Amino acid sequence: MLGLTCIDVDGTLVGSSNEVLPQVWDAAARAVAAGMHLCLCSGRPAFGKALGYARQLDPHGWHVFQNGASVVNMETGESMSEGLPHELVLELVEKSRRLGRILEVYTDSEYAVESTERMAVEHAALLGVPYVQRDPLSLSGQIVRAQWVVPIAETAAVLAEPHEGLSLHPAGSPAMPDTMFISVTREGVSKASAVRSVAAKYHLNLSDVMMVGDGENDVSVMNEVGHPVAMGNAVAGALAASRYTVGSVEDAGLVEALDLALNLERTEALPVG
After folding, report:
1. SS3 content of the chain, % helix, strand, coil (to 5)
2. Other CB atoms closer than 10 Å to residue 6's CB: what's the count?
3. pTM exceeds 0.90 for this model
4. Which residues, at least 6 apart from 36, have a Cβ–Cβ distance to it below 8 Å?
5. Are 74 and 103 in contact (CB under 8 A)?
6. Model confidence over 154-207: pLDDT tens digits?
């Protein structure tokens, strides 16, 4: 079997119901019982529903949140998170206020959003936290990520805007089909950079890692691991980067991927140290 399987959330672990199907949890439990590491690899933050998903997948392991900006060990609380420079956060907040565009700002453990628009309120429910209007600059602790929340029709225009020193990661959710979430991290930070760090912690070659995903923000990992898997509902970029394709999220395609990971052969582990 493979040593590590990384699992996206929206469109992979959960579909339009925003809940995990029971047969998916059963397959995950089989994989962990066999000795495989499971790693949540999501654009969502390390609180609310995503934190619960990570704890149920592997309560002792490393998990990737916020498109690689937040990397946390569930058992020890150790963090390998990457902060956003303060001056860039100030620029994003000023731009949000000037344009009237929804901006969310995140630390490892909390977030703030000033907007009271429908998409901001609905996103709080999707995350599994109460909606609270809050000044993004009032957050304490290291800010690791910001996020534009925009109608899908505005995605291309936002991606075309200059974001010097930053990387943008667009992703959608079946639970909010009219909305695009464009994560903003420090330049060079992505799901791929985070998975490299997690694999190293487990002393695994990337050739022994599976990534299961459906979105553009999963492609960076899929291009690096030995076993990239696209869900049946995946976007074109993820399908093109995949080695295997499984059923859609609504049909519990992740079960197929986890069973595949249990039956693939693995190479030598990396040396410790």
Report:
1. 35, 20, 40
2. 30
3. no
4. 1, 2, 3, 4, 5, 261, 262
5. no
6. 999 999 999 999 999 999 999 999 999 999 999 999 999 999 999 999 999 999
